[in-house]
Design a protein that fits this description.
single chain, Rossmann fold, 250 residues, 7-stranded parallel beta sheet, 7 strands, binds NADP nicotinamide-adenine-dinucleotide phosphate, 13% strand, alpha/beta
């Protein structure tokens, strides 16, 4: 470990986007704390000298706070958090399944809220730091056959923008990360052709660049997805509903 090495905590780090981001930060010589439920995968990743495993389930709020305190004790300080944990069960999304909606909200929304709560006092007292949250542009507006996932991401988008103001007063930066389609275990369940599909390395590079070299509130990629979803965001209901019904609602 080098002196003044920067430190990051990444959740959802056992696979997909979170894993690729953890490996990217390690390559950039950050000290990286990784969390997710699958302990064995985290241990394997922690063979990398810059990566340290802190397993936890984001739906357990006490464990989340305990995990953060453990990281702080071992690392001494923390500069950045990337909250990337998330779940999506495509089959259960098609109907209106209350249990599925509850699970998805507990992981994708409340799980992230618990993570932010765990780091809140630390960053606000220090009057420095950076919290970033991996949400999704699908949360901008409603979509068919997605009873829980898009609602959880809509909540997360709104929450992230809200805490942006609350943390700004304490000089703590908050960033919303909005990936387009990235090839991971989560999207491998999709049976439709995903437009502008990218790999996790692409996502990790974009996220690293946005967090470290840029200042904007939202990191959205790839550009084609950013363009389409930004248009979707401002269309009147009549036009948006017509387009989604015609091209997506099959
Ligand atoms: N892939 C895409 O196209 C895409 C697009 C937009 C947004 N996103 C978002 O990006 C994030 C990462 O997704 P991904 O595509 O990389 O999927 P992924 O490969 O399935 O990764 C999901 C991660 O979340 C962790 N996780 C799930 N439930 C958890 C829980 N209860 N407690 C702690 N960790 C939990 C998983 O680890 P364990 O199973 O080991 O706990 C895993 O590390 C998600 O928030 C997703 O909604 C993905």
């Amino acid at each position: 470990m080098t002196e003044n090495q920067k430190k990051v905590w990444i959740t959802g780090a056992s696979s997909g986007i979170g894993k690729a981001v953890a490996e990217k930060f390690s390559r950039e010589n950050w000290k990286v704390a990784i969390s997710a439920r699958r302990e064995e995968i985290l241990k394997e990743m922690a063979k990398d000298q810059n990566i340290f495993a802190f397993p936890m389930d984001v739906t357990d709020q006490n464990k989340t706070e305990e995990t953060f305190n453990k990281i702080l004790k071992e690392f001494g300080n923390l500069d950045l958090c990337i909250f990337s944990s998330g779940t999506y069960e495509r089959k259960s999304e098609k109907g209106l399944n209350v249990n599925n909606v509850k699970t998805v909200m507990e992981v994708n929304f409340l799980g992230v809220v618990s993570c932010v709560k765990a780091v809140q006092d630390y960053f606000q007292n220090k009057r420095a730091g950076h919290i970033s949250i991996v949400s999704s542009p699908v949360g901008y507006r409603g979509l068919p056959k997605s009873s829980g996932y898009t609602a959880s991401k809509a909540s997360l988008n709104n929450f992230t923008q809200g805490i942006y103001f609350d943390f700004k007063k304490f000089n703590v930066r908050v960033t919303l990360i909005s990936p387009g389609f990235i090839k991971t275990a989560l999207t491998d369940k999709n049976e439709f052709k995903m437009p502008f599909l990218k790999d996790t390395k692409y996502a990790a590079d974009k996220i690293y660049d946005g967090l470290i070299n840029k200042k904007s509130f939202e990191i959205i990629f790839p550009p084609q997805i950013a363009f389409i979803y930004k248009i979707f965001q401002i269309l009147p209901n009549k036009v948006y509903n017509f387009l989604i019904n015609k091209f997506v609602n099959r």
